[in-house]
Amino acid sequence: MEQAFKIRPASQEQKKLLAQIESEAGTSINQCYQCGKCSAGCPVAFAMDYTPRQVIRLLQLNLMEEALGANSIWICASCEMCSTRCPREVDIASLMDALRRQALVSGRVTDKKVAAFNKAFLDSVRRFGKLFEAGLLLEFNTLTRQFFKDAELGLPMLKRKKVHLLPEKIKGNEEVKKIFERVKEIGGE
Amino acid sequence: MKLAYYPGCSLQSSAIEYDLSTRRTAEILGIELQEIEDFNCCGATSAHNTNKLLSLALPARNLAYAEQAGLNVLAPCAACYNRFRTTEHEVRQQAEIKAKVNRAIDMDYQAKNHTFSVLDLLVREIGLEKIKEQVQKPLRGMKAACYYGCLLVRPEHHTGFDDAEDPQTMDQIMQALGAETVSWALKTECCGAALATSRPDIGGMLIGRVLEDARENGAECIVTACPLCMMNLDMRQKAGEKALGTKFNMPIYYVTELLAIACGDEPQKVATDRHFVEAISYLESLPARAAEMDAAAAAAREKAGKKKAAVKTETPEDLEKKTAAFLKAIEKNPEKIAARLIDDEERAGILASIMGSEEKKAEKIAGLMAADMEKARKAADAYVTGELKKKEK
């Protein structure tokens, strides 16, 4: 945050991308008067490079690349505190969502661990129709090369019969696979 | 009342207590649950982080099956509940989204049915009175922090059954079961959700802060209605302890577990013996705690009674008697009384001569001495100062 930025008027392309993100998030960044209430209430602001207020400021100043590269959008836990408290009704949580998706589409993921978790989670849903918790943890650990992460929890979970060792497919898992395919065809947003 | 039941993925593995106790809660309160056959995962946060249409289509398939059966839905998991409500609203309000969702799931879903959370169902549909009627073993002696977390109450336009900043429904249920609920700041704070897995450096801190705030406000246990909150606060309580450098050993319960137990179930029946932080012994200690509370309350009442009685003996005849005694003492030996009121010898002498010559002032001092010695000293001092000023003139 101590670096200097050259601020230029937005190009047509930048304007288009910002409008698309705002439309997908269903909110307008121009409503924000930078009061900082979102960032005071954000439980994870302490770990962010830019606070939620600053992320919006970046967008207001046409610094889209900087916003998409912020680790903040991956640290955001989608808890919706910011959107609930914003006196200007800016849906900041939804904006974070839209920025994450744009960062994924444009290959600018700055927090690989969170993205890896999401990928492992959705892979499980696509394959089995529902989440296979043990499989999720194994795939996440493999993707992030932390092979023994949470290993100490494995045995206690087994002892309490709180984890299945083998995935259970739902009968309609072909239907779910098709949902993933059709979403891809339709193009998501 | 008959509802479609959507357990979701967690309730079939890590949150088995929530599934068992929700089914028991329904039985106890006469609600018929029909599990949505062959349900799929709602996609949770990972889906809406990745693709908006996917995040609506995954819940929609389940909702559509329930709609075909003509049923409203009960989704105990806070994340499933939140995604279901979001999907209902988006499909209801936006024709374009509805068309895309229906294309993605290849079904005709009109969003005519509604999804309930456990809290909404218990307080607004069933009612607290009906719950109270079923209580057999009240949870007296329990001091609970009701933890709502994020997704049950936010965003308000999707959930809307309780206040987003200071929700009360879970507190009301716990009170109906006989427990005391504490007032605390972090009842709607985030537990960190999946960050506990993906970014444990951040997640541990959030878990620790919630536990610490509950403890600081006098809670001896935390009650939740979300499997992810349970997983973080219970299974990962050690991560919170490590982040804050402290030990909590705080039992965590699902609100439905406690309902079933208060209505007569053995804790084992709803799998409370399968928690990571041992949670049975606190329940067993409740009768002793209640007796302790009763004893403390009785002692406090007795003390207050004595105090009241002591004040009573002061008025008004006794006060009059005391005043008369002081007045007599002033008449007899004004110097001695003056010395009791003012340390300075010279000023005490002036006071003695005032009290000797002015009857009204002597009476006033005597009255004040009987009621409040400190006030008498102040009045005496003021008389002397006034006298000195008069002399100066």
CATH hierarchy, class of the largest domain in chain A: Mainly Alpha
State the shape of chain B: elongated
Q: Structural class, from helix and strand content of chain A?
A: mainly alpha
Query: How does the overall form of chain A come out from the CA principal axes?
Result: globular
- Just name the CATH architecture of the largest domain in chain B: 3-Layer(aba) Sandwich
CATH topology of the largest domain in chain A: Fumarate Reductase Iron-sulfur Protein, Chain B, domain 2
Query: What share of the residues of chain A does DSSP label as strand, in percent?
Result: under 5%
* Rg over C-alpha atoms of chain B, rounded to the nearest angstrom: 34 Å
SSE order of chain B, one letter for each helix or strand: EHEHHEHHEHHEHEHHEHHEHHHHHHHH
The main sheet of chain B orders its strands as 2-1-3-4
- Count the E strands of chain B: 8
Number of spatially distinct domains of chain A: 2
Largest sheet of chain A: none
CATH fold node name of the largest domain in chain B: Rossmann fold
User: How many helix segments of chain B?
Assistant: 20
